[in-house]
Amino acid sequence: MAGPEIVDVAYGEGWDSGRAAVLGPIDAAVAAARDAAGLPYAVVLRQQGSPGVVVAHVAWERHYLGLWVYDAQGRRFLEMDLRRLAEDRLFLIHQRGWAYTDDGMPEFAADAGRVTTQLLPDGRGTRIVEPRGDKGGALQTTADVPEERRWLPVPAFGRWQELFAVLGFPGADRCEPREVPVVPEREPARPNWRAPQGMRPRHLNELFTAGARFTADEAYTVWDPIEAGTLHVPSGRLAARDPTYRACPQDAGFTVPVAPGSYRVQLASAGYTAEHPGRTLVIDEYTAVRVLVSERPAVSWEPALLDGQDERLLHDGEFHGFGVDSGTGCFVDATMAGELGERFRDGQAAGTWKENDHGISIVDDPATGTNLIAYPSGRGDGSYPVWIGRDADGEVACFVADMLVLHEATPTRPARSAGR
Question: Which of 17, 66, 69, 88 is 20 to 30 A from residue 100's alpha carbon, by CA?
Answer without folding.
Answer: 66
